[in-house]
Design a protein that fits this description.
Layout (H helix, E strand, L loop, with lengths): L1 H55 L4 H14 L3 E7 L5 E6 L16 H14 L3 E2 L3 E4 L5 E15 L2 E13 H8 L8 E6 L5 E6 L6 E11 L2 E11 L8 H47 L3 E6 L4 E4 L1 H7 L3 H4 L14 H12 L9 E6 L5 E12 L5 E10 L1 H55 L3 H5 L4 H32 L7 E3 L1 H19 L2 E5 L7 E3 L1 H19 L2 H4 L5 E10 L6 E2 L11 E11 L7 H4 L17 H11 L4 E6 L3 E11 L25
Parallel strand pairs: 17-19
Antiparallel strand pairs: 1-2, 1-6, 3-5, 4-5, 5-6, 7-8, 7-10, 9-10, 11-12, 11-15, 13-14, 14-15, 16-18, 19-21, 20-21, 21-23, 22-23
The structure holds adenosine-5'-diphosphate (ADP).
The site of adenosine-5'-diphosphate has 21 residues, from α13 and α16.
């Protein structure tokens, strides 16, 4: 670009110079032409003057000389006038008064040949003619270039026009130039007659020579002679900037170049700054995007002017939904709106927030609330003026969750400690109760022996029917006392985490054992018991006493839940007891993990599912979350241990306890127990236990 402009500038200057030179050259040519025509005009006028002399004068040498002298005074270019006869002999003559007679020194005869040439030409064309120029040296070492004009004097005669003589005018070429065109010459012009080879014959004009010469040649062809007129004009070298316009354009181009250079430099500097700025911006953006702290700026009117991606992610709103928003912000929970408005008003009034920040609750776009820690600071601009507020936000829900978890763990630890105490108490109690229970059993047996006939019959004091009834009652007392002993022993084992031997049990047996106790309570609470049990259920591998207690416990909870007089008075109270078998698909069957039980566990075939359902109010969410927490109860006389123990019994067996609550319709508790391959079971199916009623420490409420 720069090179192009420079080339353009040079070309412009060169063209301007060329143009200037052409102009001058044309001018010189024109001047030369004008000079030639001036000379030609003057020469012909001179010829006419001579002709006039011939026409007006009366022949007579004296008179002619006087007239010639007059003419010579007027025409300085003439050196001499002669009147010659047809043989070219001089009849009269007159010399210019402005010069010494030119031909005096060498004699006029010397020039006779030139005169003859001119007159020959003149007589040929019967009109004025010129002879070739010749050099006449003068006395002072200088010389003159002289040219002869011969005018034939014609007279009419009967034989035609006759030449009666000639007038000869000797021209000084130098004077011709001086007199005829000298006045138009300027100071730095030189006018000359030259020969064909360039030799100068006569020169006028200044020689104020300068560097550049412009030359023009013009031919002056006269009858009989042809001269070359040369006009030379000197000019100072056309200046580098030949005229104002070129100078102006050049100056503009130079200015343009300078501006371009400055612009390029400025552009480079600007690009560099832009690059640095882009780097800084990219760094800032990367920093903002990787921050986990939410950032928000507000102006002094409380409008949000900036939010970073972390903040948007935190509240779940897009930047567009937040920017420009003032109070109430879309992430303010409606229930805190008033409080937050007040807080913002305080902030906008210019009160600085606490430096350590404050906690608050925000609402996500989906409506969920979460706690945040807000640290606010005034936003100060480069001039030191406050333009708003800058806030940093930390989502502290995780922190809160950890705190809650720690608190729950703490509570569970306390509960466990209490549970341990209860365990101790239970084992103490069971130890203490074992003695009286054993005594009750042996007294019952003793009493039965006493009632044995014939002793009783012999006495005849007792009615035999009565004795029969007493015997049954006593047998049951003995059985239940033994059962109570077993329960106490199993509780003791459970508390001490001692593994109890397990055995294969048929599920109907489990239900049969608890049924008398369940029916007793069901009758009292007007609950209908509905059992659902397929015929060919495989036996279970379990600790029978404990599983019975689980069933009993769940059935009691269900019945107690339905005992809500007000809301459920009209509703039918149904306790559902169901057992179902879910075999595992054959490829999924695997030998159960060997555990520390006395008998190695056989291969797992499937799961026995027990379901205890009620038509009670269901379980509220608040209750459901703490259901298995020891000592949690909603009953005035409850202990809150029942479900916790049930779950630990089921899990100890490798099963799971879960519930399904339909608010207002009822609850179903379900637990599973593993079923193992029959071939591996010890054939130790116990006989059916007679129905009986034992209240154990396991049953709550
Ligand atoms: P307790 O019976 O001594 O209260 P549990 O651990 O057996 O202790 O039960 C804990 C709580 O679970 C009960 O207080 C009761 O609120 C609730 N609950 C248990 N079973 C049911 C049920 N079938 N329907 C409704 N609530 C139940």
């Amino acid at each position: 670009m720069l090179a192009l402009l420079s080339a353009l500038l040079v070309l412009l200057v060169w063209l301007a110079r060329r143009f200037d030179a052409d102009q001058i050259q044309t001018q010189v040519e024109r001047d030369a032409q004008a000079a030639v025509s001036d000379i030609r005009l003057a020469l012909s006028r001179n010829a006419q003057t001579l002709q006039a002399l011939h026409n007006s004068e009366q022949p007579g040498a004296t008179a002619w000389t006087a007239s010639a002298a007059r003419l010579l005074r007027e025409q300085r270019e003439w050196l001499r006038l002669e009147w010659r006869n047809p043989q070219l002999q001089t009849l009269a003559q007159a010399d210019s008064p402005y010069q010494l007679p030119v031909f005096q020194r060498l004699g006029r005869a010397n020039t006779q040949a030139d005169v003859a040439l001119a007159c020959a030409a003149a007589s040929r064309r019967t009109g004025p003619a010129y002879g070739p120029s010749y050099y006449v040296p003068l006395a002072d070492g200088m010389g003159l270039e002289v040219m002869e004009l011969c005018l034939p004097l014609l007279v009419a005669s009967p034989k035609g026009t006759q030449i009666s003589g000639y007038y000869i005018a000797s021209y000084s070429l130098r004077q011709v130039l001086t007199e005829m065109v000298g006045k138009q010459l300027t100071r730095n012009q030189e006018l000359s007659f030259t020969e064909a080879d360039g030799a100068r014959l006569a020169v006028i004009g200044s020689l104020e020579r300068q560097s550049n010469a412009f030359t023009a040649r013009q031919l002056l062809d006269l009858p009989g002679n042809t001269l070359v007129l040369r006009l030379q004009s000197w000019r100072g070298a056309p200046s580098l900037f030949p005229n104002v316009l070129t100078a102006l354009v050049s100056a503009l181009v130079v200015a343009l170049l300078a501006v371009l250079v400055l612009l390029a430099r400025d552009m480079r500097r600007r690009l560099k700054v832009e690059h640095e700025l882009a780097d800084a911006l990219a760094f800032r953006k990367a920093m903002e995007d990787s921050l986990v702290t939410g950032l928000r700026a507000r102006d002094l009117q409380g409008r949000i002017t900036y939010v970073n991606p972390a903040f948007c992610q935190m509240v779940g709103f897009a930047p567009d939904e937040l920017l420009g928003h003032s109070a109430p912000a879309p992430y303010w929970p409606p229930e805190f709106m008033g409080e937050y408005q007040q807080r913002q008003a305080v902030r906008l009034a210019g009160h600085a927030p606490p430096r350590e920040g404050h906690e608050s609750v925000f609402m996500r776009k989906d409506g969920s609330r979460f706690p945040v820690l807000i640290i606010e600071a005034p936003l100060i601009n480069a001039l030191g003026k406050q333009t708003g507020w800058m806030s940093a936000f930390l989502d502290i829900s995780e922190q809160r969750r950890m705190e809650d978890l720690a608190r729950a763990t703490q509570e569970r630890l306390q509960a466990t400690a209490r549970l341990a105490t209860v365990g101790e108490m239970a084992s103490l109690l069971s130890h203490e109760l074992n003695q009286p229970l054993a005594s009750i059993a042996s007294y019952a047996h003793g009493a039965m022996n006493v009632l044995q006939p014939p002793a009783l019959l012999a006495s005849a004091a007792v009615d035999p029917d009565m004795s029969e009834a007493l015997q049954v009652a006593l047998r049951r007392i003995a059985q239940q006392a033994e059962r109570a002993g077993k329960v106490i022993a199993s509780v003791q084992d459970l508390v001490r985490r001692r593994e109890r031997p397990r055995a294969a049990v048929a599920p109907p047996d489990l239900l049969a054992t608890i049924m008398p106790l369940v029916s007793l309570q069901a009758r009292k609470l007007r609950v209908r018991v509905q059992t659902d049990m397929p015929a060919d259920l495989p036996p279970l591998w379990c600790d029978r006493t404990l599983v019975e207690q689980v069933l009993l416990n769940l059935a009691r909870n269900a019945m107690q839940a339905m005992d809500e007089p007000a809301a459920y008075a009209s509703r039918e109270r149904v306790l559902g007891l169901a057992v179902a078998y879910q075999p595992l698909p054959s490829q999924a069957r695997r030998p159960a993990q060997a555990n520390s039980s006395a008998v190695a566990a056989p291969a797992l075939l499937g799961w026995m599912v027990f379901a205890v359902s009620d038509t009670g109010p269901g379980i509220a969410d608040a209750v459901a979350s703490q259901l298995y927490t020891p000592f949690f109860t909603t009953k005035s006389e409850g202990m809150g241990l029942g479900l916790a123990l049930c779950r630990s019994v089921v899990e100890q067996h490798g099963g799971a306890l879960e519930f399904d609550s339909r608010p207002g319709l009822g609850t179903t508790f379900r637990f599973t127990l593993p079923v193992h391959a029959a071939g591996h079971l010890p054939i130790d199916l116990p006989a059916q236990l007679p129905p009986g009623a034992v209240n154990s420490v396991l049953t709550s409420g």
